[in-house]
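Extended Data, record [histone H3]-lysine(27) N-methyltransferase
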Amino acid sequence: MAPSTSTVLRRRTVAPKPVSTALRKKYKSRKKADEDYSDSCCEKCGSGDNADKLLLCDNCDMGFHLFCLNPLLPSVPQGSWFCPSCVYTNNLNQFPLVQTKIVDFFRIQRPTNSIDKLNPDCPKKRKRSSSSLVVSKKRRRLLPFNPCEDPTRRLEQMASLAMALTTAGAEFSNELTYMSGMAARSANRAALERDGMQVLPKDDIETLHLCKKMVERGEWPPLMVVFDPKEGFTVEADRFIRDLTIITEYVGDVDYLKNRETDDGDSMMTLLTAGDPSKSLVICPDKRSNIARFINGINNHTRDGKKKQNVKCVRFDVNGESRVVLIASRDIRKGERLYYDYNGYENEYPTEHFV
């Protein structure tokens, strides 16, 4: 039997290793050798505990725990390190709100000012007559996102993502990519999943394809990427989003987990947990990605953290391939930030320090 939706996912695959030289590494890099940083605290959680996992920014001297950063760092980076605020503040540039530039950035096929509510390529199905003799529980189908009707606002939404991707040094992609030297597409076989994988029903596959076609036409999901000094780039709902609405697919370069176990790349996502560990796959969105990269995680060890969760992340078998889909887990209000649980398997990735 396939596992439930709450037990088949995790965002990162490599837990941070205890780092005993974090602060000492930074002390040696200071110009003033006699400067004391023993009272440094994490700017995010406010704690001075776990000093061996506390990094100090080489620009502003602000401290951050490895596990409080978003994205998290699995280990102390080589060379100088700058906190998200310094990195993004120095590099943050508004993407031009010009339709031609946005069309080129996202490779939009057909710009449009209208919103196609239905997929014209999908034939309409006849409504089945219900029978009073048979009582069955209807399966809850996934819903396509509902784009904003205002074309100017859609340009602003796309520009916010373009700004975040440009700042992060990544290009836009809305599909899984298979690059030379990494995992081949033939390696992505959902049948290899260790505990079995849920099969996405045909109707929901059509809905996922509809969402992708809307993005290709410039009919954007109602999401806005904003910058927060503590959380970095994060995503807000730009209009009301109904429960079970498809938010986006998690995409990026597909690689073998064995090649990424010591990788400092941020926001890696499990794609396939195979019975044979050498065949396990991850999604690496550091070079090619979409808005999923900027949706933040929760602290699933606290009640308040769990209350913030409004998105679930599920790995599905889609025509024999493993795919990762982010879905609204409840109604989401306009202006509400999006959060999902990094972990599906209990305690696979430590989140107890998340704010």
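Summary. Confidence is low (pLDDT under 50) at residues 1-35, 113-137, 344-355.
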